[in-house]
Amino acid sequence: MLSGLPVDVVALxxxxxxxxxxxxxxxxxxQMMQVVKDHLPTALxxxxxxxxxxxxxxxxGKDTYSFGIEWKNPEKTDKSRGSIRNxxxxxxxxxxxxxxxxxKVYKVFLDYYRYRCIERNFDGKRSLNxxxxxxxxxxxxxxxxxxxxxxxxxxxxxxxxxxxxxxLFMSPKWHLLDIFATLRANFxxxxxxxxxxxxxxFLGMEYEQHFANKAFFQNNVVEIHCQMTSGLLKSVLRMxxxxxxxxxxxxxxxxxxxxxxxxxxxxxxxxxxxxxxxSFLSDLMRVxxxxxxxWTIWFTKFEEDKxxxxxxxxxxxxxxxxxxxxxxxxxxxxRYKIRTGTTTWxxxxxxxxxxxLAFVDEPESLVDGTFIDIRIT
Length: 377
Description:
This protein is an alpha/beta fold and 377 residues long. The protein contains twelve helices and 15 strands.
């Protein structure tokens, strides 16, 4: 334990720990409390509880981001008419030590946090957002003047964040992940989105080192949404720090499904693609099942002319060491309850024939063919 080490070693170690860990260390002994007070007193300041945080937008040419904040307020007054639970706060990422303006803005933010989440002394049960508070209560700037952005490192210095949601599609600034990895904040869950079906952006092998080595990805990444090549998919699904990550992917081709079949991915959702259904099922039956596993494949076009239930039964009948039965499952055309060795699992199938289909976000796009939904649990 650190408490048994020399004081100078403990003080140095505190620089590399989260404030949560430093605070826990401080309460172990009187000596450790004094070390923390002398070398990292910020760790003993009141925590800022944030239920959720999401990157909303960024300003071109500046390291200024707008974050959607959901405050952690379980009290009933949170439901009062006009009270603010979610709001947008602008933050700036600044290299080097904080400026005098940063210190001034952060002090106003701390006052706002006490007003908003601790004292909760609202006028007529209606709370102000940060910008209005900075003008009307704190006098930080005059009315109609822009409120300065809060220094991100200071803003999250003592924060406990439940969920962090970062969308890199609008700004492929992967260095933003590096910034978050250096913050003292605690993030219980991290969710990443990058790429889009709309612009057909696929991440290739050049991003392999991002997924493998970036400190941000090493813990608590619970969900990733993206499109990637089959080569990159094969690589990332083998990375141990993604063992429990939920993946939401799109743009799958047959080679992607081949990678999926031979992976140990526990939770994957595929939103669209093209599949050779019989080949997919035949290969799936040759691989030992595992639990927990939840794979869902939505609205994927299959290459066969039409769905052949007899061909599917033929795959199950000829698969080695497989026993199965058909059972009813609400909302699905077929459910096959399959026993492979000592493991029982479900295969759900549902198909749709479409001649014209317009995506909500692509009203001019027309699709025709036969589409399959697959769920494996």
